[in-house]
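Dear colleagues,

As part of the handover before I leave the project, I'm documenting each prediction I ran so the next person doesn't have to rerun anything. This entry is a single chain, and its sequence is reproduced below.
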Amino acid sequence: MSMAAPAFNLRTDLDAMWLLPSLKPRIANQLAGLVNTAPAWMKNERPLVSFSFDDVAKSAAHSGARLLAEHGATGTFYVSGSLVGTHSDYWINADRDDIVELIRSGHEIGCHTHGHLSIANATPERIFAETRTNTRFLRTLEPDLKIDNFAYPFGRASPGLKKRLATRFHSSRSTRAEVNHGRIDLQLLSAFPLMDRKMTPRVIDRILDRAVQTNGWAIFYTNDVALQPSPYGCSPALLAYALTAAEARGIECAPIRDALLKIGAERTF
């Protein structure tokens, strides 16, 4: 005699799912996209592109910055203070002098969490505290440094974290692969991985064409910039292709801080 399956209880079963470590950050990240924490209508006069570098690898601070300079551009480097001057599994990280040189060259320094923690292993309050620690560290390099923009480590957000970050940062960048256009959420900016294992020139062309069609803002992110990049980085050739392709379409290249002003999203606090 077969036994009937127990009835599904929405509250009980969802609570149980929420407690599973592997599901909690994924559910939170999905929910983050359903709540527009910092709505803004884009009012830019021409399409935009931004190039951002996470963590930051020494090769990004050198080869990446050099390629941007060759195209008359600057980028946004989201620094995680605890990684500065260290070695990771895939690359050597930028040291203090590298970060200072980026600042002097006109690049934007953005904020990661100091210990590269994400919503998968820390509460929103812990992450917010980490951003304060990171800011203090970065200002030991340049006391007057403005740090207005954040990037979610591993691209993981949550509704509660977005709300908390909105009290401190002008924007927070995710890893949602879309062109920003029309009405956007400043605390969940979309961005594409500029990584050799995930991106091709043909896909870059489609992304930039979409930015032109929508008068939108395409943001790219990567980690290292090397002839043999890590799984999370790009080759100089791929970065150069994206820069050249944007120029050919008349797309203006700007770091995150400048692009926010160009879309009319002036900071009010």
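The chain has a mean pLDDT of 90. The radius of gyration is 19 Å.

All the best with the project,
I.
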